[in-house]
Amino acid sequence: MDQIKGLRPSLWHCLWGVPLFLAGMSLFVYILFHGLTHATDSLVQVVVPGATQLQLHRGLYTVFLEEESVVNGKIYSTTQSVDGLVCQVNFSQTGSPVAVRRPGMSTTYSVGGRSGHSVLEFPIQEDGKYAFSCGYGENASGPEVVVAVGSGVGEAILRTILDGFLTFFGSGIAGLVPVLIVLIMRARSKKQLHLSQTK
């Protein structure tokens, strides 16, 4: 018993890991909440059938169909079929069309009263203004829906999740460091006490 009392430092010092762990968990929650709620900030919402002008830079852009959305205070909820909805992109300066295709990666989001999934993508080779339009054709009709156009949404979501999990595991390691230090120092203290008693 006396040997146990003589060990230093006290096991109570392990509690120093608690605030480190809690701080890491708080940062983990903040990263996920902030990152996911702002992942769609770059998206431009367009009510279709309709058209708009977009100022785009070189890169790959994705078109999302939003099942739940709010535009100018109006709530949109897509429950009807949008089969036949066709979107076009044209370089405003020359009128030349941009190839629109199915997305190579499926991306979905649901945040802030908005939910959507990727339906199309198109590459932009030259910075400038582009005419973006979607419709059902002259002899077809369909519901009024909201599409959102932007780039880097999938990457932003993946980066946020990765950063969140790195923070989660990092906070666990940070919380264990004081515990490991205390255990190592107590093991050394025990060894020194044992040597002093055998002399």
Task: Please write out the topology.
Blueprint: H1 2-5, H2 17-37, E1 44-48, E2 50-56, E3 59-71, E4 74-77, E5 86-91, E6 97-98, E7 108-111, E8 114-124, E9 128-135, E10 145-150, H3 153-198
Antiparallel strand pairs: 1-10, 2-9, 3-4, 3-8, 3-10, 5-6, 5-9, 7-8
Notes on the structure:
There is one protein chain. This protein has 199 residues and is of the alpha+beta class. It folds into two domains: 2-35 and 160-198; 43-151, Jelly Rolls (Sandwich), CATH 2.60.120. It has three helices and ten strands. It has helices at residues 2-5, 17-37, 153-198; strands at residues 44-48, 50-56, 59-71, 74-77, 86-91, 97-98, 108-111, 114-124, 128-135, 145-150. The strands form two sheets. Strands 1, 3, 4, 7, 8 and 10 form a six-stranded antiparallel sheet that branches. A four-stranded antiparallel sheet has the order 2-9-5-6, with no helix packed on it. β3 and β4 (74-77) form a beta hairpin. The radius of gyration is 28 Å and the shape is elongated. The model has no long low-confidence stretch (mean pLDDT 86).
